[in-house]
């Protein structure tokens, strides 16, 4: 677990200078008043965003990578114990990301809001049963041991929210569901070589993987509404379905999708408790 205070050292004009801030944003104190404003703001916004959006198990690695990629000489948490760190993470995930996205530096916000080149634009759907807080997952007809949440490509000029509702209907037949949250940035995964060759031959393209926009839907219907033949407009993709816990969904996913699933379910965790 990360600690309450983060210290960032930057190198400016040949001199190392430091700034300090608390994770919950209540106490941001320059250690050296000569630290440049631009560097300070960039570091604070970038690091706080990573801390609050990253999966807990990956925060330390993400912060270290940020330090390397942004020429920060060091980025570490002092060895004091933090009792109130979780208060910053208790904010509704949708509003937490919205809040910190507004303060995120312009250079990084463009990366967050736009899918990277070379990846197929895609939506992912986390369909939640509000009574049990479990998630819809289904086994693929072509790979029976692989279970996944619904997903699908975004049509040309189609809004991702519209695409998510359409894909949910086409793959599960579900129409009585509402979007309650979204991951406010694109997540990507690369296809393994064999999968990439198969899909690109099928699509007539050369995508290296998929860039996904994820949405959390609350299911308002009954289980008998779920129909794996979908709405009849597309070929069926799934053979079986079940309501699963977040941990079960991750465990049943193919390996190359697991990191994305971990991130998505971490962002939606408040709604799934």
Please, could you describe this protein's structure?
The chain is built from 9 helices and 12 strands. With 273 residues, it is of the alpha+beta class. Strands 5, 6, 7, 8, 9, 10, 11 and 12 form an 8-stranded mixed β-sheet that branches. Strands 3-2-1-4 form a 4-stranded antiparallel β-sheet. Helix 1 (37-53) packs antiparallel against helix 4 and helix 8 packs antiparallel against helix 9. The model is unreliable at 1-5, 8-17, 23-41, 66-91 and 95-112 (pLDDT under 50).
Offer a quick outline of the entry.
The chain has 273 residues and is of the alpha+beta class. The chain has nine helices and twelve strands.
Distance between the termini: 20 Å
Q: Could you tell me the mean pLDDT? A: 74
Structural class: alpha+beta
User: Uncertain regions: pLDDT < 50 for 5+ in a row?
Assistant: 1-5, 8-17, 23-41, 66-91, 95-112
Instruction: Write the element-wise H/E pattern from the N-terminal end onward.
Output: EEEHHEHHHEEEEHEEHEEHH
Strand content is 25-35%
Largest sheet: 8 strands, mixed
The percent of residues in helical segments reads 25-40%
Q: Which term fits the overall shape?
A: globular
Radius of gyration: 21 Å
What's the total count of β strands?
12
Work out the helix count. Answer: 9
Secondary-structure blueprint:
Layout (H helix, E strand, L loop, with lengths): L4 E8 L2 E8 L5 E3 L6 H17 L5 H11 L2 E5 L8 H5 L3 H11 L2 H8 L5 E11 L4 E7 L6 E2 L2 E3 L6 H13 L4 E6 L4 E4 L2 H11 L5 E11 L18 E7 L1 H7 L5 H10 L6
């Amino acid at each position: 677990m990360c600690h309450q205070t983060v210290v960032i050292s930057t190198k400016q004009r040949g001199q190392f200078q430091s700034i300090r801030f608390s994770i919950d944003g209540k106490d941001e104190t320059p250690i050296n008043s000569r630290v440049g404003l631009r560097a300070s703001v960039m570091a604070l916004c970038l690091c706080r965003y990573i801390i609050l959006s990253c999966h807990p198990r990956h925060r330390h690695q993400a912060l270290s990578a940020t330090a390397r990629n942004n020429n920060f000489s060091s980025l570490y948490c002092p060895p004091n114990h933090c009792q109130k760190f979780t208060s910053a993470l208790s904010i509704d995930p949708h509003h937490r990301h919205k809040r910190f996205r507004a303060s995120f530096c312009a250079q990084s916000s463009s990366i967050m809001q736009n899918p990277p080149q070379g990846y197929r634009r895609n939506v992912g759907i986390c369909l939640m049963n509000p009574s049990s807080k479990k998630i819809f997952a289904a086994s693929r007809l072509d790979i029976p041991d692989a279970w996944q949440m619904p997903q699908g490509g975004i049509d040309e000029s189609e809004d991702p929210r519209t695409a998510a509702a359409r894909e949910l209907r086409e793959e599960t037949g579900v129409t009585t569901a509402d979007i309650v949250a979204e991951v406010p940035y694109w997540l990507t995964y690369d296809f393994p070589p064999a999968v990439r060759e198969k899909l690109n031959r099928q699509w007539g393209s050369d995508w290296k993987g998929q860039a996904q926009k994820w949405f959390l839907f609350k299911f308002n219907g009954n289980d008998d509404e779920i129909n794996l033949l979908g709405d009849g407009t597309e070929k069926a993709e799934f053979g079986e379905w079940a309501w699963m816990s977040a941990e079960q969904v991750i465990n049943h996913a193919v390996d190359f999708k697991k990191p994305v699933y971990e991130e998505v379910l971490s962002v939606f965790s408040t709604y799934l408790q």
